């Protein structure tokens, strides 16, 4: 009894939590392996294992292309936006200038506007851009990346600023005495020290971009330019919903592999980064 | 840590620094030049001016040694201005107009559209031979031959003029396949003439027709020459209205002042929808944030102490967070399926989860819980680890039980640490479009009101107004998004103010 009161209940809670967490994921796995490949024949426990859904996904759809599009767009957008965000966070954390406080508040405020209701305006802007510079317009990697970079400064900047604040200013001062310029301080002292938060922000931005559906759905209409979110959504639309469920689940699993991999690899940083950022606001 | 401060590590080689700077500035200049050509070609002088000013500003900023904060802020801010602030301001400004289907362009556009749409063939008019041609930039034109005189003319949206060759230089004739691929465009294409317009009849013939409806400048109205009906221009509504109240579909965009805002608050059906949606929206955002936080925190506490398999539990627990959420939302939609959904199968029930308001609301909240609690679990785990062990020890010495110690010491500290995250999570969930759109799509809808469903958030409701099947109402949708903005901003500002006392946000 005392074992249960000390440790046992923890195991019980943990097992319940794991069942809740894994239930839908196991279902996706079974449905992906389900030889019939329909929703109505999918069960929690696999009723057979066949790679049919995976081969159909790779042969009958543009899945490899969607995958490439998603990884390139999300990869570029998250890398660049973390960099832009770190630059701004450095200025907010280390420099004192007019409008600093207003700037910080404004960043928070602009996040409150339901972004994609500006979608009409964005659509009009991009129609213009497509006419002038087709290389960065609709249905292109760069167009999407630029669009997502609009959101580079935001909550992430706050998180990073908080983390920058925890690095003692004395480090900068002694570096300045040693003759380092502000770029030297930023690139050679601060960036290496805040690498956990960079990793976390990068991962969050990557997950966020890969999951972004609404803008991508409007801006990427051409079959070959779709991202995973748009492409997979199209698989289970309308009458195809039941019959394509197996290949949809197969696609979901393949989409999850890179994120889950990076996630597990960075898990240590994530707890550290999120909590440190959280503590400092 | 100190090793990084010693010696030349802090000083990049001056030569290298100069090279990097030159390369970066060169890239900026190159991009600017690349962007300038199409602008100059299209004679967009304002755009060209803005581009030149921006480029000059950037080159100045990164060559001077002053304005150091700006050097770090400008790159992100540029994108922020172009892709967020500008669109948001534009959207906000449309809230004061009737912008939407039927009210897109200027009054002149509307008149042209009305006249061109009313072109009908006059019996006995000449039938021309037609070839469909395109200019270098892909714009359509009609190459027509008058059967009586053999006169060859080229016509585009600017009018008809004699053609200097067959086909004229600079034009290419479309073959049947290419033409039928653009057949819709061709059907809508009209070459304005003095009497009316030349339109196509099939892909090889064209006729000249006359516009039945014409605009009369003196009376500022449209007159139908067949029926004799007159539609007068109503500048307030941006439409031509007949005496019996009939409106022409093609209107123009006008300022309507605060009409969209008052409509949201006073129009009985709409304000009813708006209020009900607002209440559910608060419930949804609060329950999503609070529920995930409570469950995440409970699991974090349970997994705090020394125990076996802790690492494995933690990894399995946070897996939902790493799964692609858009796909999992679609999977959850099917888990709730009445006939072959997993939930009904496991429970042995036959509930139509998305069929009634309450079950649908419960279902979307459950999905939110599943998607969101791993994140809360992660951050609470981190925050709990940051609470010094001495504090808990001290409470134990003072004779407090574990529950009491938690409530008196850990919970307040946790809340201080996590409030900013909880607020931003609230703001995110308040506008969580995907959570609704990819599962219930706002439904179930009452039989008499297809515009507003039981699980609709303001954002999905507004989206339907703006892009929904019953015609776009951008102006009205923009007005509602301003309401959303105000609500979220006020809620966040109040909560931030209350936590500022405990926490130095602006340190």
Automatic annotation (TrEMBL), chain A:
Compartments (UniProt record): Cell membrane
Transmembrane segments: 12-33, 66-92, 104-129, 141-164, 185-207, 245-266
Main localization (coarse): membrane
Biological processes, Gene Ontology terms: maltodextrin transmembrane transport
Stored InterPro entries: BP-dep_ABC_trans_perm (IPR050901), MetI-like (IPR000515), MetI-like_sf (IPR035906)
Keyword tags: Cell membrane, Membrane, Sugar transport, Transmembrane, Transmembrane helix, Transport
ABC transmembrane type-1 domain mapped to chain residues: 67-266
Family that this chain belongs to: Belongs to the binding-protein-dependent transport system permease family. MalFG subfamily.
Name of the protein in question: Sugar ABC transporter permease
Species for this entry: Actinoplanes siamensis
TrEMBL record, chain B:
Cellular component GO terms held in the UniProt record: maltose transport complex
Location in the cell: Cell membrane
Membrane topology value: Multi-pass membrane protein
Alphabetical UniProt keywords: Cell membrane, Membrane, Sugar transport, Transmembrane, Transmembrane helix, Transport
Top-rank taxon, per record: Bacteria
Database matches in InterPro entries: MalF_N (IPR035277), MetI-like (IPR000515), MetI-like_sf (IPR035906), TM_PBP2_N (IPR032550)
Pfam families (alphabetical): BPD_transp_1 (PF00528), TM_PBP2_N (PF16296)
Transmembrane segments: 20-39, 45-63, 72-90, 278-303, 315-333, 353-373, 411-430, 474-496
Gene Ontology terms for molecular function: ABC-type maltose transporter activity
GO BP terms, alphabetized: maltodextrin transmembrane transport
Residue intervals of the ABC transmembrane type-1 domain: 278-495
Family stated for the protein in its record: Belongs to the binding-protein-dependent transport system permease family. MalFG subfamily.
Described purpose of this protein according to its UniProt entry: Part of the ABC transporter complex MalEFGK involved in maltose/maltodextrin import. Probably responsible for the translocation of the substrate across the membrane.
Protein's name in the database: Maltose/maltodextrin transport system permease protein
Organism from which the protein derives: Actinoplanes siamensis
